[in-house]
């Protein structure tokens, strides 16, 4: 059971909540702070103080005063009017992440919601009722308004949800789990939607997959080393210590560990003096991606525990301040950085695929074909990898450099962080497919060299893969192989160490 308290959630905890069926509860102390801020809101309403979002309109309507008897209707109208997302829904796991992150943010006690609202959010999470949230429609400032409005609809018993592997009306799922819908009161609608939880949730899911991809890139490239009889000297610890980047040092160490008992790698001068950069510079390129992952992890874990709505309530209501914590710029930049770093994993992987299939660059059968000419072998796999790499270059264009004013120019600079996080996720999916192609080709090449000469770790990897992808003995529909490898990489990535320990 994981305890949310608004301050200590990390990516390891999110992994347990998203993928390991961990249940959650909330800190009693945090609920006390929530209760204090709620009393402050009720006092503001009772005394008729003018405070943005409690008894005023929103955005450009912030100067419109709302009567005391209309504040509940104001919140309901807010959710209905802002629930205008379009496009395909976010992955269900990202929707679950949004619920968790929104709950954690409200537990900080600055938002003025009732403890009841938080209890309902926890009920949804533990019952695995996940809102259907369209991916498009957020500017990433004033919060992820449209996506989070669709989340809020679920609490009200409206909209659709993912429940028991089906897409159903929210009211049906709530009824089955005996969860009463909630009627939002003063400040609660705004507190639910005024935050960065859509981009951060997508960022969390993307990061966790990116981390796994980075590990797999090291393993797959080690197999490529064997298939091409790569020079192991380039991974010597002294080279990488001489430069000093810890991530580069770590990648080189992993490659050495994978290949420690291989009889397929060579020494410099044995077959050639130097390998191409896509082989020789694996630690430098993969290591730089790991540096980026470290930066992104730091920003995500701060944002996961941040108060990002507006206004925020301090000193038991004595200080209520309108600010801009909803602006997604920190996550927008982090997601754009992540896109570039992961695209480079695919970029260098595709170059290794080319070296595996191009007969002018190796001494393997042309295109790894069992009957060159009659059968094309892996020729078009490289085309597919090249296409995915090219698409990643388009996705890597930074979303955060764009801004379009909204709300009659009141909100005149926005982050586009949710677009950045969505594109980062697409980049991850493309990169995993490129690595799947490299894995298929590398294993084929290593097997051609001799299974008995492979390292223990890479041989274990081969045995795992051969359970569902046979060697290339004739041309077949390789799209199916790529899909199987892609799915296997994604699934086993959650416990990737098992690949080399069994």
UniProtKB/TrEMBL annotation:
The keyword Lyase applies. Belongs to the PAL/histidase family. PROSITE patterns: PAL_HISTIDASE. Its EC number is 4.3.1.3. This is Histidine ammonia-lyase. One of its GO terms (molecular function) is histidine ammonia-lyase activity. The modification 2,3-didehydroalanine (Ser) is found at residue 142. It comes from Natribacillus halophilus. It is found in: Cytoplasm. SUPFAM superfamilies: L-aspartase-like (SSF48557). HAMAP family: His_ammonia_lyase (MF_00229). Pathway: Amino-acid degradation; L-histidine degradation into L-glutamate; N-formimidoyl-L-glutamate from L-histidine: step 1/3. It is an enzyme of class 4 (lyase).
């Amino acid at each position: 059971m994981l305890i949310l308290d608004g301050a200590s959630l990390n990516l390891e905890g999110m992994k347990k909540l998203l993928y390991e069926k961990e249940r959650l509860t909330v800190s009693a102390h945090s609920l006390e702070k929530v209760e204090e801020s709620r009393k402050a809101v009720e006092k503001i309403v009772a005394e008729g103080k003018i405070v943005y979002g409690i008894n005023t309109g929103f955005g450009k309507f912030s100067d419109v005063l709302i009567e005391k008897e209309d504040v509940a209707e104001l919140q309901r109208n807010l959710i209905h009017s802002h629930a205008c997302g379009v496009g395909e829904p976010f992955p269900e796991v990202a929707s679950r992440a949004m619920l968790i992150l929104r709950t954690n943010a409200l537990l900080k006690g600055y938002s003025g919601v009732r403890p009841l609202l938080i209890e309902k959010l926890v009920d949804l999470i533990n019952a695995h009722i996940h809102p259907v949230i369209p991916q498009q429609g957020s500017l990433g400032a004033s919060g992820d308004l449209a996506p989070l409005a669709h989340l809020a609809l679920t609490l009200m018993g409206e909209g659709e949800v993912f429940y028991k592997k089906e897409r159903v009306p929210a009211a049906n799922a709530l009824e089955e789990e005996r969860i009463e819908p909630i009627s939002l009161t003063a400040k609660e609608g705004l507190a639910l939607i005024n935050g960065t939880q859509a981009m951060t949730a997508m960022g969390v899911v993307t990061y966790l997959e990116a981390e796994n991809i980075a590990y797999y890139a090291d393993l797959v490239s080690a197999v490529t080393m064997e298939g091409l009889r790569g020079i192991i000297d380039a991974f010597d610890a002294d080279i990488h210590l001489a430069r000093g980047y810890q991530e580069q040092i770590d990648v080189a160490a992993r490659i050495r560990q994978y290949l420690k008992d291989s009889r397929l790698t060579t020494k410099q001068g044995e077959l050639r003096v130097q390998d191409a950069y896509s082989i020789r510079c694996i630690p430098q390129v993969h290591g730089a991606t790991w540096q980026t992952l470290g930066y992104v992890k730091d920003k995500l874990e701060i944002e996961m525990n941040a108060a990002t709505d507006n206004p925020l309530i301090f000193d038991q209501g004595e200080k209520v301040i309108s600010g801009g914590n909803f602006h997604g710029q920190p996550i927008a930049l982090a997601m754009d950085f992540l896109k570039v770093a992961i695209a480079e994993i695919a970029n260098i992987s595709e170059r290794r695929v080319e070296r595996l299939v191009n007969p002018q660059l190796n001494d393997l059968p042309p295109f790894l074909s069992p009957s060159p000419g009659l059968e094309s072998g892996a020729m078009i796999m490289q085309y597919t990898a090249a296409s995915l790499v090219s698409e990643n270059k388009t996705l890597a264009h930074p979303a955060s450099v764009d801004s379009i004013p909204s709300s009659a120019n009141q909100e005149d600079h926005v982050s586009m962080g949710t677009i950045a996080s969505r594109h980062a996720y697409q980049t991850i999916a493309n990169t995993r497919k490129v690595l799947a192609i490299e894995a298929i080709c590398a294993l084929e090449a290593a097997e051609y060299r001799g299974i008995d000469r492979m390292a223990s770790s890479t041989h274990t990897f081969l045995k795992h893969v051969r359970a569902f992808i046979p060697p290339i003995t004739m041309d077949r529909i390789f799209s199916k192989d790529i899909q199987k490898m892609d799915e296997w990489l994604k699934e086993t990535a959650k416990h990737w160490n098992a690949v080399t320990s069994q």
